[in-house]
Amino acid sequence: YYYWRETYDGYELVIRNVTNLSIVSEAPSTAEAPAVLLLTEPRFANVLYLESCQGVGFSGLSVGHIEGGLCSGGVLYLSSCDKVSVDNCKLFGCGTVALQCHDCDGVLVENSLLTDCSNSVLYARYSRAIVIRSCDIDLNGAMPYLFSFSSCEDSIIANCSIGGGNDGQAL
């Protein structure tokens, strides 16, 4: 159900073929101050990689790399996953992308803070029903693009606040 995949400068955690998994903080938390930290040190590793999973939920977590700076690993990578929810979490860089979806169906990110990623907030390929809703997106740097969809269907970004300081805009 899990293994450690070697990357250039360390290992990334891969969770595979899991159904109905919830990783939830029992302590009170907000997206700005999650109670549970899920961190990685290798900059070339994704913090968490899910492969062929269904019904996975995250709530009250802060997920990211230990140190800022240049890296090529993302934060949360989903491959061939269905019905994944991220609620009340903080996904942060130096990860290149906060959320990557490849061949996924039914991914919901809501009430979360997406910040400090170097390239993008979302990169989705061959996926459907990707929803980013009621999230705070802090650019806090120069991202080449915010969202990238390639061969995707029925996806939406709604009621999100996008800012890089005091000039936040709603999307």
Give structural notes.
The protein is globular and about 35 Å long. By secondary structure, it is mainly β. Strand 19 and strand 20 form a beta hairpin. The chain has strands at 2-7, 10-16, 22-24, 36-40, 48-51, 54-59, 61-65, 76-79, 82-87, 90-92, 97-102, 105-110, 113-115, 120-125, 128-133, 136-138, 147-150, 156-158, 161-163, 169-170. Strands 1-2-5-8-11-14-17 form a seven-stranded mixed beta sheet, with no helix packed on it. Strands 4-7-10-13-16-19-20 form a seven-stranded mixed beta sheet, with no helix packed on it. The protein has a six-stranded parallel beta sheet with strand order 3-6-9-12-15-18, with no helix packed on it. The model is unreliable at 165-171 (pLDDT under 50). Helices cover 0% and strands 53% of the residues. It has no helices and 20 strands.
Oligomer: single chain
Output mean pLDDT: 88
Helix residue percentage: under 10%
What's the N-to-C terminus distance? 37 Å
- Rg for CA atoms: 15 Å
- Report the order of strands and helices: EEEEEEEEEEEEEEEEEEEE
What's the total helix number?
Answer: 0
Structural class: mainly beta
Largest sheet: 7 strands, mixed
* General shape: globular
Number of strands: 20
Strand content: over 45%
Low-confidence stretches: 165-171
Strand order of the largest sheet: 1-2-5-8-11-14-17
